[in-house]
Design brief:
The protein is α+β, with helices and mostly antiparallel strands. Helix content is about 40%, strand content about 20%. Strands 3, 4, 5, 6, 8, 9 and 10 form a seven-stranded mixed β-sheet that branches. A two-stranded antiparallel sheet has the order 1-2. The protein has a two-stranded antiparallel sheet with strand order 7-13. The two termini are about 15 Å apart.
């Protein structure tokens, strides 16, 4: 593992060992969801890796699953009794003080994966599986644009704990102002916003505090609710049934490998693997 200033560059061995732990997290997520009939799908680069590589994208450093709000609430209701606390722990905004992301993370005990500029965040940061949650957004495009703007504001307020330190110029000032909003007030407001968004069933959904691609600001509900068994690193996980349509929407010609300079990993300051 090489170090550039405060950033650690993950080498091939690091990624291989990281993938082993992330696979363990994926298997545990799948076990719980199958046991309790919770609908989920592997997502993003994890789904792409399953289809293109039959497992992890070799240079990818994280893993993702996604589910709708109803499924997520069901998962939350069983996760504490299901998880082996000697191996795993689960974090989200309403469970973890100082946590400022609009989705959950299933993490491995006795590991560390600390993103650059997040060293000061006041919670444990083990190697993780992102658990994204989709909420209803308007089917009407113009209304969805308004929804996206509201979501953008929440995302920036949540990020302000980091942005106040890393942004420059006028953006830094804005983040410093946004960061004056108390965590308790912010989370109460965001939870009310989530409830408001889900008051009506729609055919379009979105992870509210995560940027949407292609300027559509929403995704088809069925991409996350119609799933099939998909092979991933010699195990079977759940994934989008219409993965070709979904991955084309996300990545275009997804079977084509990106050039080396675009094979990016997240900036990391500390990585501690299992011994």
């Amino acid at each position: 593992m090489k170090t550039t200033q405060n950033r650690r560059i993950l080498g091939e061995h690091d990624l291989i060992e990281l993938h082993k732990i992330e696979l363990e997290l994926l298997i545990e997520m799948d076990r719980i969801c199958r046991k309790h009939n919770i609908l989920y799908s592997i997502d993003g680069g994890t789904l792409l890796g399953a289809i293109r590589h039959k497992g992890f994208i070799p240079w990818d450093d994280d893993a993702d699953v996604i589910m709708n709000r109803e499924a997520y609430q069901k998962f939350i209701s069983v996760v504490d009794k299901e998880l082996d606390s000697s191996k795993f722990y689960f974090q989200d905004m309403n469970r973890t003080k100082g946590y400022r992301w609009g989705y959950g993370k299933l993490r491995r005990q006795n590991t560390e994966f600390i993103r650059l500029n997040q060293e000061h965040m006041p919670y444990k940061q083990g190697i993780f599986l992102d658990v994204f949650v989709c909420d209803n957004v308007p089917d009407n495009y113009l209304l969805r644009c308004v929804c996206n703007f509201h979501s953008f504001i929440y995302r920036k307020i949540l990020y302000s704990e980091i942005g106040k330190n890393v942004a420059k110029g006028f953006s830094k000032i804005i983040y410093q102002i946004l960061n004056q909003i108390s965590e308790q007030r912010l989370k109460k407001s965001y939870n009310a916003y989530v409830k408001y968004r889900n008051r009506k069933h729609t055919n379009t959904v979105k992870c509210l505090t995560f940027p949407a691609c292609n300027k559509t600001y929403g995704y088809k509900r069925n991409w996350y609710e119609e799933t099939i068994d998909i092979e991933f690193e010699n195990v079977i996980l759940k994934g989008c049934k219409d993965y070709d349509e979904y991955l084309t929407f996300l990545y275009g010609d997804y079977m084509k490998l990106p050039p080396i300079e675009k094979r990016k990993v997240h900036p990391v300051s500390k990585l501690t693997l299992l011994s």
